[in-house]
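Shape matters. As here.
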Amino acid sequence: MKTLINNAIDVVEIKSSKTDLPVPVINGVHLHSIYNPEREAESFVSASEGHLKKNSDLLIFGLGFGYHLSKVEARMKALYGDDYRVFVIEPNKELYKKWKELKPNILSPRVKVVHYIEVKDFYKDKELVSFLSDKPSILPHPASFQLNESFFKTFMTFHYPTSLKESLFFIEDDAFADYLQEQDLSQSTDEYIESLKSKPFIQGHDFIALALKEMVGEGQR
């Protein structure tokens, strides 16, 4: 079975393994074994045992076609019952779409696959950010990490922006965003907060602005 998907950057090719399971190939990189993806996934779990026992919260870099996720979930369930959470980061749009279309495996709601293209979009996802704040163990899927190494390194070192203009991206309240648009966007958030302190009267949205400082500060710790 071969399916070619043209992307502006990548070509995703779907091959069949010797065990008749679909295996995605991106830019020549096989994301799973072309012989037996499930056996390879079992080896991945065995090699990751220390990470799995360390924490019931797990962040996995790379979706592939989910064979490693199925085996990881089975092991997490054996270790923690229903008290575990797994988030999976996947930046490749075409791979994500093809995985959802072909459904090579079924994961429980405790395993959440999160897809965005830009790193900053992941950090706008409130559920994901809340999960990250609980300091999960991090487990890279080797082939996926190799393919998207630059992306994952940027993800791990991301800091929320300090400029008022860039901070607008993370503001979801339209009224507050409009309010900030009227400010001097060349300022840093620290400079803007300092300017509020000298105002004789603080308006309603200024209180939200003060909360912005806390949000930015949390993101940089």
Notes: DSSP finds twelve helices and eight strands in the chain. Residues 38-156 form a domain with the Rossmann fold fold (CATH 3.40.50). The first helix runs from residue 37 to 47.
